[in-house]
Write a structure and sequence with these properties.
3 helices, Aminopeptidase, single chain, alpha+beta, four-stranded antiparallel sheet
Length: 106
Amino acid sequence: MRIIFRHNVPSDDNFIFATYLRNRWFDKSNNTTLKRATWSSLQHKRLERFLNEQKIVVACLDEDNDTICGYAFNDDNSPYVYIKLGFRSDGFDLKNKLLKQLSNKE
């Protein structure tokens, strides 16, 4: 199994929105007093802006480009990296590879 990197395509959007919103909601640094639906709606609009303004680096399987292993983009000048649980081992070193790809595309 080989992992390759590509830019996001429209079919990635649902996965990116779902994982980003879920992880940001449950993030320990999220101290919002908004209801989840309101917060999610605001964050969704914010993420749409990122999708329109920049390319997101997506890590996927070489033999199946639709199987996303992780992704990275600049979230207000700091990188945001998401990696599926099964690909978080040190053997993949996916976080560092995604960050390297992200810095190379700028």
